[in-house]
Design a protein that fits this description.
single chain; alpha/beta; Rossmann fold; TIM Barrel; 2 domains; 6-stranded parallel beta sheet; 5-stranded parallel beta sheet; 18 helices; 15 strands; binds cobalamin; binds iron/sulfur cluster
Amino acid sequence: MATDIVLVGVPKHITSNPPMALASLKAVCTEHGFSSKCLDFNIEFYRKFANAPDFIHEMELYFQIKLRHELDPAFKIRWTSVVSDWVNRILSFEPKFVGLSVFSFNTCACARDLILALKEKSPSTKIIIGGNGLYDNYFKENELLEQGLIDYYVKGEGEKALIDIMTGKIDEPGINGRSPVQIEDLDALPFSDFSDFNLDLYDKKLLLITGSRGCVRNCSFCDVGVIWKKFRYRSGKNLAEEMFYQFQRHGTKSFVYTDSLINGSLKTLIDLCTNLINFYKENKIEKFDWGGQFIVRSRKSMNEEKFKLCAEAGMKFVSIGVESGSDRVKAHMKKKFNNEDLDFTLEQCEKYGIDVNLLFIIGYPTETEEDFQETLNMLTRYKRYVDSGILRNINLGNTLSILPNTPLYEQMGDLLIEADDLNNWRSQMNPDLDLRRRIERRIIAQDHAEKLGYILPAREEQRRYLEARLARIKS
Ligand code: B12
Ligand code: SF4
């Protein structure tokens, strides 16, 4: 039977849980009377080829479009057959529309191949693409549109734009280059629908939930402010209700917030916690565990009382963008916190049993050797949290790419930055820090962290990627 829309997710993405965008878009389709089917090709890819690590490694290099990695001919044949199978699967639902989610720049290469194969096999199927990957310069959605390879692209939130397209209102904001308008009332959106996903396929039986869109800060390197102009958030009560609804529907008690920060609105955070605690009491259930990205605030605003309440409500982990051990670099980034604030946050997390994941950026344009050393020193200083088990993971990233239209991008002239592309840049104000040195520092940081016993989840994959980039520079 024909389906109004097949919603598709593609590699490279994480395998711990189903993709949020598909579940969120499916829910609005149902609300508006459209039939839909979600297909997560990312999880299928990783599960199907779990016993073919060489193929996965080769494909992961290919998915990182910035590497412009040419596929080995034997793998290329295999890859073409994978994509062709996916096209057949999509078409078996006889969709009027295919909605392809391009989560980040890491999904652009795969999305492009799927689009080409799909249009070749079924030129009349309408393809809509959306997702934050479209904000990357490497993905030329306008060219795809002009060449007739896609029919629509959506920038910004998809819930309204998708329904507009499906109901023929194609001149609305967000569609084919028209500026998006943010949804004001996020509480009015239906709860996400994960019913198409087999949760047993994922690493963890956890679900995603979105409490807010946008951010209260405007860090120089980050494009969240470009994508979401305003910070919009749901009420704590509505969030607690969704968590409870998903628990009743899927039995899951673990949730990850997709928000850029879960403590953007402290009022919402407190309301969420209070509502959850009431739910647990009323329904006599053990508390859920949940967490998400978190900003470091001063000890006055995010005080001990709030950490205690969060822990009582089940907050189990936070992920913090620390970026650098140097306060000077953090100030340039406009992170709006310093090492003292971070020390307090980590102390509180340890006290209340909240696990921490720290994210770093190695190779910021103003980062001197001394600043870099401060990052290494910070890792040494925080080893005690690794030993106590609270500091679960760190992510050192892949060195800094300057993202289009970010504050840093606008400052390129002032910082005398010349760039071959936004990944390969060099500031005349800090000329020693070229791409090669950035990658070297990044590898030194990884070696240092590994020696101290830190867990770097994507350790091997990131090392392979960095070494491939270094080899490329050398050649
Ligand atoms: C949560 C999150 C993560 C989580 C993902 C958890 C998960 N399982 O999904 C984790 C931490 C794993 C993660 C990883 C990465 N992330 Co991330 N992540 C985010 C974050 C904070 C929220 C994304 C989210 O799920 N939002 C909720 C859902 C509902 O929103 P959404 O996916 O954007 O979908 C909406 C619209 O985009 C649109 N839409 C999406 N698809 C489609 C399809 C159609 C047809 C339509 C019409 C609309 C549409 O409608 C949706 C509903 O409104 C965003 C920043 C942000 N606030 O948006 C960054 C962000 C998406 N991530 C980003 C990046 C770069 C990454 C990484 C590549 C980082 C890295 N170097 O490793 C990895 C990619 C994963 C991988 N392994 O390769 C960038 C993407 C930048 C870019 N231009 O490509 C962002 C924007 C953050 C940033 N500014 O740097 N990320
Ligand atoms: S706090 Fe995080 S999401 Fe917000 S602007 Fe800074 S880096 Fe971006």
